[in-house]
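Milestone M4 deliverable, item 7.
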Amino acid sequence: MILADKIIRLRKKNGWSQEKLAEKMNVSRQAVSKWEAAQTTPDLEKILQLGNIFGVTTDYLLKDEIEDEEFIDAACETPIRKITLAEANDYIEQRKEASVKIAIATFLCILSVIPLLLLSALSELTSLHISENVAVGIGVVAIFPIVAIAVIMFIRVGFKNSHYEFLEKEAFETEYGVTGLVRDRQKAYRSTYVKYNYMGVCICVLSPAPLLCGAFTKNEFLTVILLCVTMLMAGIGAMLFIVAGVRWASMKKLLREGEYTDEGKRKSKINETVGTVYWLLTTAIYLCWSFMTNDWHITWVVWPIAGVLFVCVKLVCNLWLDKRE
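Output delivered:
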């Protein structure tokens, strides 16, 4: 209750409404209302930000007693980091380049299994005289350099982005003109973002079609080729999602919108946990069913079904989170 009273006292002393404080703190008005009603407590990052905004010490905010404000010495104040126009533009351009590299690296990871599948299928053709052990050995060896290239690309992108990691971990403000610049770039990119997502959805939805066609043929080699086509289509769809998503996320991060607000970050963490548990369970079901029945030509249906159900699970999870708030 003491912290809530101090927030109300300082807000009114500055002549601010809850909406104005919420805008300065980059949170919703409901969040400020809950702080002042002692329904929730600001996290440490927000308490530090409150101290900077009101010009008081964190000790004053955290003490369990009402007393005169302890103002911060201007010389000792730790300012919130400000993003300049040059930094914002550089970050967006860097993420634009990174989006392509991340997409290619992801595609390589999907592509790495295809040589193994093709060589295994070729070993079944007696006319080529390739033993199954040799085919599997070459296929497995081929996986390593492809995955290694992908990992190197991921690492290099991570190193280049390390300079801007504070955007996710620390409170920051943008200098005059940055918000306008980012919103203009977001508006210009919106049509491309929507188009890439539509294309990605269409390709991913259609990707099982070749494999379904292969289910009606007894030619195992043709079935494997169609499986590879399915994987390639899924990989292309994933690339489109990544290119669009990474660039869009960079702009939302600078604007502190959506999942990059405090509420959004909490939702994102819960969604990530739910997603991890969901796909671990899906993998366990797939492997148990496959090993127990040995019907590998049938058990693959787990994945498209799981993909459709996952959308429903996320919707239910988000509705529950919204209702809880």
